[in-house]
Amino acid sequence: MTADAADDRALLARHTAGDREAFGELVARHRDRLWRVALRTLGDPDDAADAVQDALVSAYRSAATYRGDAAVTTWLHRITVNACIDLARRRASRPTTTLTEDNAREAQTVDGTYDASDAAASVVAALRRLPVDQAAAVVIVDVEGFSVREAAEILGAPEGTVKSRCARGRARLAELLSDLAPGNLTPVRPVQRPVTAEPGAPSDDDDPNDDDPVDDDREGSQ
């Protein structure tokens, strides 16, 4: 166990023991990365802020159920991804605003890592059309750099399901971005852009061959 992982567990233990400062310290350690995951999964800064807030409230309340089977950061990411999925599905039942280039630019520049080229805006628009379950898998594996095994822990899904979601998401992105010139796609890798579900888009959970427990195992399940 790394020193950071040990510190995370110590902070969570202090929180459950009644230390009023410990959870704030834990949040400060992980907030930026959780925000980045939420932003890239949902593609909208306001939605991302709502999802992170929901996730942190959930983590605060369910800290006592943390079993220590996974790293605290994995546990927090799982709660955040679940919050993103829940929010995206609620949003999908209501009309949504059209993604404009200005909105894409705002999402791309929140953490200062994206350019605001026309190609980048097109990639953002394409990623927002992915089913949110595929989007979450792509963000966790291809953007955040977690292994498939770690992503399976975060998403509460079998490794095969995670691989399938990533493959489907990448294939769909290739279709959506086929009109972009190859030169534009090189510096703007499709899997490195914010994502969210398009209203009415199919979910992996609709696949009868996809054994996916992500929605059945919620916060504090680690």
Explain what you see:
The chain is an all-alpha fold and 222 residues long. It has one domain (3-201): Rna Polymerase Sigma Factor, Chain: A (Orthogonal Bundle). Helix content is 61%, strand content 0%. The radius of gyration is 17 Å and the shape is globular. The chain starts with a helix and ends in a 37-residue tail after the last helix.
CATH class call: Mainly Alpha
The averaged pLDDT comes out at 74
Spatial extent as radius of gyration? 17 Å
Order of helices and strands: HHHHHHHHHH
Tally of discrete structural domains? 1
Q: Share of helix among residues? A: 55-70%
The CATH topology: Rna Polymerase Sigma Factor, Chain: A
Silhouette: globular
User: Can you summarize the main beta sheet?
Assistant: none
The termini sit apart by 17 Å
CATH superfamily: RNA polymerase sigma factor, region 2, helix turn helix motif
